[in-house]
Amino acid sequence: MSPVAVLVGAPGAGKSTVGKRLASALKVSFADSDHMIEEQAGMPVADIFVTQGEPVFREMEEKTIANALQDHDGVLSLGGGAILNERTRALLKNVPVIWLDVDLSQAAKRVGMNQARPLLLGDVRANMNRLMKERAPLYAEVATITINTNGLKVREVVESIVKKLGTEDIND
Questions:
Q1: Is the pTM for the entire model greater than 0.90?
Q2: Residue 167 resides in a domain
Q3: What's the Cα-to-Cα distance from 72 to each of 54, 93, 95, 151, rounded to whole Å?
């Protein structure tokens, strides 16, 4: 058993929103790795970063995603930094991975001044720009489908993913 689709992308790319709608369209369940971690830890991701540090969070994230890739057969949304882990990237080679690509201005608008995103605290736009540039090659590495979400409605993104998932060659 493995997910029918895994969504990756920067904070503000729409992974959770698109993921829920995609799962509904495909008539499968939806799971979000950050929410799974929060349930296991009994606290929000931001609190894990503050009280236990990013390395502890990343270790929890790696284990949670590895389990989800074996146990979840629906749509799985990953936290923006999940692809930083080499083992996670290796596990993603076996499933359809959709990179929801978004430009900085769109992502910054969607994220706003969200305090629940600890890696963006301070100068949100500058931090987001740095993270997006650092992570783009890794998103590209794991993606079997790339969808540029700029200017698209959620429905349009979902329709595009469904169409591409239904093709013989999902790498186009």
A1: no
A2: no
A3: 25, 16, 12, 31
Alpha-carbon distance of 37 to 33, in angstroms, equals 6
DSSP state of 98: E
- Residue 24, in any domain of the structure: yes
pLDDT of 119: 46
What is the number of H-type helices and E-type strands within the chain? Answer: 8, 5
The answer to whether residues 65 and 90 touch, using CB atoms and an 8 Å cutoff, is no
- pLDDT tens sequence across 79-97: 988 999 999 999 999 899 9
Residue 116 lies in a domain: yes
DSSP assignment letter at 4: S
Q: Which domain holds residue 109?
A: 5-161
The rounded distance, in Å, linking the Cα atoms of 132 and 13 is: 11
> CA-based angle 96:97:101, to the nearest 5?
145
Distance of alpha carbon 98 from alpha carbon 56, whole angstroms: 26
Distance, in Å, from the CA atom of 65 to the CA atom of 105, rounded to the nearest integer, reads 29
